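Weekly modeling sync, notes
Attendees: AB, CL, MP (scribe)

Item 1: holo prediction request
CL wants a bound-state model with flavin-adenine dinucleotide before deciding which constructs to order. AB pointed out that an apo prediction alone won't tell us much about the pocket. Agreed to run with the ligand included and paste results into these notes for async review.

Input as submitted:
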Amino acid sequence: MHIENDSYQDIRDAIRDLCSQFPADYFRRIDEERGYPEQFVDALTRAGWLAALIPQEYGGSGLGLTEASVVMEEINRCGGNSGACHGQMYNMGTLLRHGSDEQKNRYLPRIASGDLRLQSMGVTEPTTGTDTTSIKTTAQRNGDRYVINGQKVWISRVQHSDLMILLARTTPLAEVGRKSEGMSIFLVDLHEAIGHGMTVQPIRNMVNHETNELFFDNLEIPAENLIGEEGKGFRYILDGLNAERALIAAECIGDGYWFVDKVTEYTKQRVVFGRPIGQNQGVQFPIARAFVNIEAASLMRYKACERFDARQPCGAQANMAKLLAADASWEAANACLQFHGGFGFAAEYDVERKFRETRLYQVAPISTNLILSYVAEHILEFPRSF
Ligand SMILES: Cc1cc2nc3c(=O)[nH]c(=O)nc-3n(C[C@H](O)[C@H](O)[C@H](O)COP(=O)(O)OP(=O)(O)OC[C@H]3O[C@@H](n4cnc5c(N)ncnc54)[C@H](O)[C@@H]3O)c2cc1C
């Protein structure tokens, strides 16, 4: 038996109970069909879990990031994939922190109730990648509208969302003092935008992650959809990233436990050369090492979340938690696939699906290299390399 994580047991039990209605074959079928787990996301929404971080005054449950992270961890630990809906948890933070009272009153209660989904955030562009301040999508003010032109790539859940937060340049790069200035964020009503200046091109990908290329050709959006002050959008996006990193760390931790549980059970049963393969230390040690690393990553996740909830700076901890957790889940995934032998490749064991799903987090939403670069530059004070 593994050490059972005894913190936040009520939340863990509630999520496990909900997830038990969506067993492995549900997620396997969705993966095979390249579908979207609509019923699962609906059930999570109706139970109020996706509104965990929305304050009670706007109809949410006003929980902390720590509790929210446990929700995401448990979904992935149960064999599901929070990636289908995790944007709903953290995207609203941008609106909450930087939106006007009018915007918050208008949108947050309906996001909390599930009437509106704010699942998407459009930042990444094909020609600039991680170098976000070089984005080329522009928003030009024209009376009471902004006119958007440009392109985004890898923008997730657009086909299952009502709203999207969009980052665009409102002042050309050449005219700003610092390259992080002159970008703004907007709330885009996807139903109004699609077909009226915005085109969505789904990207078929390795993980059945609903993600898309977006094209903007004179898309007009009301000026009132600007969030916060014009020109400060990049800072607003950065403000939200720590929550995103910590929640995704938690998902990786959930994945890691799922792999360890699965491979431990399997290797205790699978008999080769007349004994369970799990009797060999060559099999035990990689699994034990992955388990140790998941436990350690989980501590860093709690540290990041506690600092976030206490409104203390947590950039270092959130980034380190994401790196440790993504590495630990990937290590566990490899051990799990390896010790299932050929069966690891069979879809009905779910290992190959979870293997693909957890691999994403070495690259998105921030690559491992960029986290190391952050630690080197901002914590160890090495000179900036790019
Ligand atoms: C399934 C999926 C869903 C996504 N969802 C969203 C979304 O909803 N919204 C959104 O805005 N974006 C989304 N993304 C984009 C994601 O955030 C980016 O893919 C990620 O940030 C990496 O950017 P890139 O792909 O442009 O890689 P690049 O910037 O081209 O980098 C490629 C690789 O080069 C390396 N590298 C780059 N620069 C450096 C450096 N200076 N030093 C060392 N190594 C470096 C890194 O290893 C990196 O992985 C998603 C991506 C995927 C795959």
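Recorded for review: The radius of gyration is 21 Å.
Action items: CL to compare against the apo run; MP to circulate these notes.
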